[in-house]
Sequence to fold (472 residues):
Amino acid sequence: MREFLDRIAAVVGPHGLVTDEATLEPFLIDWRKRYIGRALALVRPASTAEVAGVVRLCAAERTAIVPQGGNTGLVGGATPDASGTQIILSLSRMNRVRAVDPLNNTLTVEAGCPLVTVQQAARTADRLFPLSLAAEGSCEIGGNLSTNAGGTAVLRYGNARELTLGLEVVLASGEVWDGLRGLRKDNTGYDLKQLFIGAEGTLGIITAAVLKLFPRPRGWATGIVGLDSPENALMLLSRARERFGERLTSFELFSDLCLELVLRHFADSRAPLHTRHPFYVLIELADSYGPEVVCEELEDGLAAALDASLAGDAVIAMSEAQTREMWALRESISDAQAREGKNIKHDVSLPASALAEFIAVTSAALERAHPGVRVVCFGHLGDGNLHYNVSSPVGVDADSFLANQGTINRIVHDSVAHFHGSISAEHGVGQLRRGEILRYKSPIEMELMRKVKAALDPLGIMNPGKLLARTN
Ligand code: FAD
Ligand code: ZN
Fold:
């Protein structure tokens, strides 16, 4: 084994190989601390050629590779198994912006670029790279593409898949596929990049990408609306789409319980409206006109919603500080729920037309099974994506409540299936959902996925056991 590691060290240099336990430790555990693995080593190549060299050595030895970006994934996809025989391949040293082309509206970056660095590079070129999520300071673009990340601007700009024009990938054989094309039209056969996007590292290693840039908006307007029900939120969404067109950038829903948890666990937070409402929507518009024009637009739109009794109350941010405060409310929900105690997360998507009924039916089913259970429901309503998380009833120990995870997942996900939704909207499958997808995807779809895996990774060394359960 020492000899194998020496050969890896010869490829990546002394800074590229980590085997001491203390340095390895944070790479062996996932963000939510639900999965802990072991690893032969952490390998940190600094170039595509070095990644290719490492993969060739691993293929020769049949050593499994677990790619890791910022390790912020929520499904255990970047955590090695317990065998201690896998290597973790961190892309963090590959963090260069290779090229900016403002005329073509593209950016070419290496996979280890933190998402904030990509956003900043776009801003420096007076452009926008719209992918945005609460983990953006830590997650890396390679991880974002491998999970097909969503976030808060999907409604207008699409998810990571829709923001990618080209990829460079080290294949499981150690060969390099240079697909770094910056073309918006290219009908020369199968769109291979789409296989690697959202593949969670199971088909190859993304080493670089050509990303789409957009004009940078000059004015933003942000508001919070209090509502009686998800039905009203959906009606407001429909009107907002009609009225604001593509200026509508974000439409985020959260329930009053979400707000209550944030107020309880974040001392400097405060309720956005004078009175409390069962649900709230954070709505944001962005435009190439100045902020006054967009603010006026939003004001008029929300006034019309109040007149139509769709909304109970509404407030618009009058300063950047207020805008940040509004977003902080929305983005602190996950943390606040975690501070309340361990919980059972669901990241589901549904057709907009089924969302309200899904919430009503599923919450009633959970209440029947576990009286007093607390559903912490929030998410990207504009994308049909709910984070439908379940906390223990007040007074019930959160850790012991987790014993119900299997039955609660079954109630929620069977309901998702009933309404023709998906059990993973943006977080992926990883280890967390690899068993469950067998229940919700058809055998023929699973078989097609296994065939793709076998074709691109015949030795089964690319992140085995993630997304697809092991068959041997
Ligand atoms: P990692 O966690 O390191 O890896 C994720 C997966 O990708 C693993 O399977 C890994 O093996 C694989 N991988 C990583 N890099 C590569 C590569 N270069 N080549 C091949 N495979 C690779 N997600 C959303 O979609 N929307 C959100 O709004 C959102 N909000 C979040 C908020 C918080 C506070 C946190 C902690 C997470 C959030 N997430 C969200 C989840 C997470 O941030 C995303 O999944 C993110 O895209 C993961 O990026 P990462 O670099 O941390 O990847
Ligand atoms: Zn989300």
Observations:
- The mean pLDDT is 96.
- The pocket of zinc ion (ligand 2) is lined by residues 150, 380, 387, 426 (CB under 6 Å).
- The chain is about 35% helix and 20% strand.
